[in-house]
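Format is sequence with structure; example below:
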Amino acid sequence: MDNRLSVPGTSLTTGPPTPRRGLRWLRRVLVTALAGGVVAGAVLVLLPQDRQRPEVVRPPAAGPQAHVPAAVTFGVPAALPQLTAFIGQQEQRVRAQPQDARAWAALGSAYVERGRAAADAADYPKAQQALQTSLRVRGTQNTEALDGLAALALARRDFPTAKQYAEQALKASPKRWAAYPPMIDAYDGLGDYEAARKTLDKLLQLRSGAAARPAVMARASAVYRDRGWREDAVAQLTDAAAGARTPAERAAYLAGLGQLAFERGDLQDALRHFEAAVRAEPGRGAALVGRGRTLAALGHTSEALAAYRTALARQPSPQDTLELGELYESLGQSRSAEAQYEQLRTRVRQSVAGGVDEELLIGRFEADHGDPWEAVERLEEEWQRQPGIEVADALGWALHRTGDDKEALTYALTATDRTKGGGVRSALYAFHRGMIEMELDLAGPARRHLQEALRINPYFSPLWVPMARAALQGLGEVPDEPLPVDAS
């Protein structure tokens, strides 16, 4: 059976279906350059040049940007204006003191954070150069640079590399709490959820200071969410928001609480948290998108579209662009949807040019809006490299779209089985599994998993919720069959 819903010529990339080759080429170029003797002066050409360079570089002034060094060192959320101001200061510092390894590390980490906050991968090559320069200046025991390189690899969805750098940082300084969150994220991306849990346990045993405690609680919340412990996840993130020291930090944790509420279908609670996050930091992209997602589920379409457009104007995330395109598609606005998909193609190309692994996103898009066979090819390679449950779910769905439902079910089981995956309660994963089971004539399991998807979150997708309801209606009620003769 051919399950494709494809449009010819809609591929997100114009080249061959494995841009991984391009990323490998980029990494080879960087490694070769570094092995051949990149020095601080070679990196300085990447930085904006001041006509009048100050002779004395003063420390950051007191005020909002005073918290940014902690953000780039410890992974605490920071606002874009403060990040940009801090980057400018560090650029001046490394020009005046090109052998200052700590300044190079802080600059590279700030580039990473700004790239993530602004959804702009153009900062990532600059981050790579600055962080590698820091390593050259001070050596491989440079924990600040190793932390930054692990964070950069995570921003690029390169989990094996993130694990490598995080392990080095942890070995160099096992009592620093900042070394643990990148390791947890790397384990998650590689599908090693037991290792992620054990690493979190070690992190929670450390005595972190008051400034770090909210970020530690936020990290714990993410692990609990992935294990299906919703109440614990909410409790940790609530405490993190209460202990946040800056508006940007508070906004990030409030947006996380909004997402947790949305995932369980509590729209009013989700909207309350997203709007509180927007009040704390008006430019927080995750809060604006979350607000748009929730308003769409509530039926406030005009407000939802405006919220999405505002978010994407500030933070042109490829994932959020796809989400808006699918919202337009669910509303029957095909021209607007295609305009978003065209924007998505541009943003994915820019992201890949910055070294980001976008295979998961490309695979999801191709499965539903392009060429499912291309999606399978990309996602199979991604699964071999970093087999997390997100990839398992996407690959299973892509195989379903090509009609290979028997193979698809093996990946859908991995994504939804607590003994095989992370235990996350995902309405989308349950929906995918139910649809695959329906195609295999497994009516009972299909009905159970489609009902589960709608029970977890009746608003999980404007495109797929109507399909889930229609499929359930087609399956009908549970047949009234007599009990087996040996039943007690």
User: Anything to note?
Assistant: DSSP finds 25 helices and no strands in the chain. The domain at 22-47+70-172 is CATH 1.25.40.10 (Serine Threonine Protein Phosphatase 5, Tetratricopeptide repeat).
